[in-house]
Design brief:
171 residues; Rossmann fold; 7-stranded mixed sheet; 3-stranded mixed sheet; 12 strands
Length: 171
């Protein structure tokens, strides 16, 4: 039970994967977690499948240490965070505090570029495998990987397992 745990979900302002967001949020909320959504806009973030939502915070307003977990939602839009210093600082700060840090699909590159996947087992969308390897990740090609408090998933096909693993990690 992730009861009274706080989870920061970071998603692209455009082209995040609806399924990855929805499955993860629903499972975490059912377990009692409080969700805060952040992006680079506060109105009208758009998913690849037509979902629209209004994030709670701008990424620049975040103190990553306030949360028990930081989750980067995938989709092609996640590339906006690959070279975003603020996103890297949030991920590194959470990891340094021993918090759960997770990413799915294209968002796994953000963790890799932030230096969190060096020597760690990881996976991601097949189109980003080379980027993960170049950044020092031990690429497994699995649907889902958990290496300590780092969780990575391949994409929408792993959304449920990703959500389940996050809940387990927060217990």
């Amino acid at each position: 039970m992730a009861q009274s745990k706080s989870v920061l979900m970071i998603l692209a302002h455009n082209n995040f994967r609806d399924e990855e967001y929805q499955a993860t949020r629903e499972k975490l909320e059912k377990s009692g977690a409080k969700i805060t959504v952040a992006s680079t806009i506060k109105k009208g973030a758009a998913g690849t499948q037509g979902m629209k939502l209004d994030p709670d915070l701008l990424i620049d307003e975040i103190d990553g240490q306030e949360f028990d977990a930081v989750v980067f939602i995938g989709g092609t839009g996640a590339s906006q965070y690959w070279h975003d210093v603020t996103a890297h600082e949030i991920a590194r700060a959470a990891a340094q505090k021993g918090k759960v840090v997770a990413a799915s699909s294209h968002a796994t590159v953000t963790l890799a570029v932030a230096g969190l996947l060096i020597g760690k087992k990881a996976t991601g969308h097949v189109s980003v495998y080379e980027k993960l390897k170049v950044q020092g990740a031990i690429l497994t090609g699995s649907k889902l990987e958990r290496d300590g408090n780092l969780i990575t998933a391949s994409g929408p096909n792993a959304a449920r397992e990703f959500a389940d693993t996050l809940v387990d990690a927060l217990q």
